[in-house]
Amino acid sequence: MLLTSGLAKYYIVALISVTDPDVPSYGWVQMLQGFDTRIECKNELAENEYMYFISIMQTLRNVIKQVEVMQCMTEENVHLLNRELGHGGPKSIGV
Predict the structure, then answer these.
(1) Most distant CA pair in the chain: distance in Å?
(2) Interatomic CA distance for residues 50 and 47, integer angstroms
(3) Low-confidence ranges of the chain (pLDDT < 50)
(4) Residues paired with residue 73 on neighbouring β-strands, in sequence order
(5) Which residues, at least 6 apart from 34, have a Cβ–Cβ distance to it below 8 Å?
(6) How many CB atoms lie within 10 A of CB 80?
């Protein structure tokens, strides 16, 4: 279940698959820059998706298998979805 709040920042996030057998196979990673609206976030992603893709691949090169999808969501939603995927606690990897 995704939550929304008028005050929450939106972040560009990516669902990635990983090679490390000691963690869940998938996880959401969040960029550090927040946007005040989902529209601003989506516009930034549309303009610079390739740059974000390269950044994720380079930063996580030792564990990443593939970037599955990129989209905009709140930090709270990232944490909720990662818990549903089997990750403990609200840890995220900032890129």
Answers:
(1) 38
(2) 8
(3) 1, 90-95
(4) 11
(5) 9, 10, 11, 75
(6) 17
Dihedral sign for Cα 56, 61, 63, 65, please. Answer: positive
DSSP for residue 55: H
Which tokens hold the place of 83? 């818990």
How many Cβ atoms sit within 10 Å of the Cβ of residue 50? 8
d(CA 52, CA 59): 10
Q: Which two tokens stand for residue 13?
A: 């996030």
Give Cβ neighbours of residue 65 (< 8 Å, ≥ 6 apart). 16, 17, 18, 19
State both tokens at 84. Answer: 């549903």
In angstroms, what CA-CA distances link 41 with 13, 63, 64, 86? Answer: 10, 26, 24, 27
Q: Name the 3-class secondary structure at 3.
A: coil
- Tens digits of residue pLDDT in 17-42: 999 888 899 999 999 999 999 999 99
What's the CA gap between 78 and 3, in Å, rounded? 10
